[in-house]
Amino acid sequence: DVLVNNAGVHLVAPVAEVPMESFHQVFDTNVYGTMRMIQAVIPHMMERKEGTIVNVGSITALAPGPWAGAYSASKAALHALSDTLRGGTKKFWHKCHDSCSRRHKVKYRKQFCRQV
Predict the structure, then answer these.
(1) Fewer Cβ atoms within 10 Å of its own Cβ: the N or the C terminal residue of the chain?
(2) Is 75 a catalytic residue?
(3) Is residue 78's pLDDT more than 50?
């Protein structure tokens, strides 16, 4: 079984001016929607001791733009959840992936630091 969490919404605005309802909508889709799907499938995957979960992240979690605060924060939360899920399910199976993998994060950080 494979679950690909690819739903996401963006919000372009200065973070200080984002209405809380809009912030909630971004997190409801990008973070809570992902968790709803994970919680729906993980009992079955754990029972079978197999399955793969792919959470589509974004490099903006590491390098947020000035008008992407809500989106960047939601994707950073998604990266943290992916890391936590990967560690928390190790004794059952080890297949939770973040589309912005550690290798890409390190490569991006190196490139970004060279440019600054």
Answers:
(1) C
(2) yes
(3) yes
pLDDT tens per residue across span 83-104: 888 776 666 654 666 666 444 4
Catalytic residue among 32, 49, 75, 110: 75
The CATH number of residue 38's host domain is 3.40.50.720
The residue segments making up the domain with residue 67 are: 2-115
Domain count, the chain: 1
No. of H helices and E strands in the chain?
4, 3
Q: Of these residues, 32, 49, 71, 108, which one is catalytic?
A: 71
pLDDT confidence of 58, banded at 50, 70, 90?
confident
The arithmetic mean of pLDDT across residues 65-72, rounded, is 90
What are the φ/ψ torsions at residue 13 (nearest 5 degrees)? -175, 155
Return d(Cα 114, Cα 90) in angstroms, integer: 35
Helix (H) or strand (E) holding 102: helix 102-115
Query: What separation, in Å, do the N-terminal and C-terminal C-alpha atoms of the chain show?
Result: 42
